[in-house]
């Protein structure tokens, strides 16, 4: 079995319904901060992590 996902497998994971695994309320990060929220599929067979990182806007 290959360690790489096919495009179809990646698309299925992205499209999959996701739910938070706890009831903890989280605050969005300040500039330079980060936040990680654990998620799972409805049957909890798949685990996901929503990462949010805040960086100051730097125009090109």
UniProtKB/TrEMBL annotation:
Lineage: Bacteria, Pseudomonadati, Pseudomonadota, Alphaproteobacteria, Rhodospirillales
Family matches, as InterPro entries: DUF6978
Pfam family, one: DUF6978
Record-given protein name: Prophage protein
Entry superkingdom: Bacteria
Organism: Candidatus Defluviicoccus seviourii
């Amino acid at each position: 079995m290959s360690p790489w996902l096919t495009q179809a497998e990646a698309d299925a994971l992205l499209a999959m319904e996701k739910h938070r695994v706890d009831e903890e309320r989280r605050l969005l990060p300040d500039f330079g901060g980060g936040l990680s929220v654990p998620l799972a599929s409805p049957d909890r067979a798949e685990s996901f992590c929503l990462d949010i990182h805040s960086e100051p806007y730097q125009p090109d």
